[in-house]
Amino acid sequence: MLVLVTGREARGDGLDSMRAVAWSIRNRVSRPSWWGRSWIEVITKKWQYSSINGLEADPNLLIYPVPGAAVWNDAISAAEEAYSGEGTDPTGGAVSYYDRSLDDFPPLWAKSGQFAKTVDIGRLHFFRLVLPN
Predict the structure, then answer these.
(1) DSSP the chain
(2) Of 24, 37, 68, 109, which has the maximum CB count within 10 A?
């Protein structure tokens, strides 16, 4: 499931973004809270990853990423790295992110003061939690 959410959330944005998404999920698992205490709980938490449990079913997501395609291999690589903890977290401890298409109307959580922006990778803005959860 980590491979699917990694590939879908960073769809069309490349390996660096996939790696960052996977690490942000790892950061949530490493910091159990309302979003879950395990990989599966974090990934399937309602309202968190629209590519897995969004409001509207996107038929394109049923086939994305396509096994065997280069993007599938990138998603596997990014997910394996984050799951094993190999390498360095490219997000600076981020647990949340949003797409730059929302820049004019960012999510409320991003303006709440509970999160600090850490980095932009591809089209995604990443944030770490600054207040205890």
Answers:
(1) -HHHHHHHHTTTS-HHHHHHHHHHHHHHHHS-BTTBSSHHHHHH-TTT-HHHH-SS--GGGGG-SPTTSHHHHHHHHHHHHHHHT-S--TTSS--EEEEGGGTTS--GGGGSSSEEEEEEETTEEEEEE-S--
(2) 24
Dihedrals φ, ψ of 62, to 5°?
-65, -25
pLDDT digits (tens, 9 = 90+) for 41-91: 999 898 888 777 654 555 555 556 667 788 889 999 999 999 999 999 999
Spatial distance between the Cα atoms of 63 and 46, rounded to a whole number of angstroms: 21
Tokens read off for 15: 């390996």
Token digits of residue 21: 């998404």
In this predicted model, what pLDDT tens digit does every residue of 7-41 receive, in sequence order?
A: 889 988 999 999 999 999 999 999 999 999 999 99
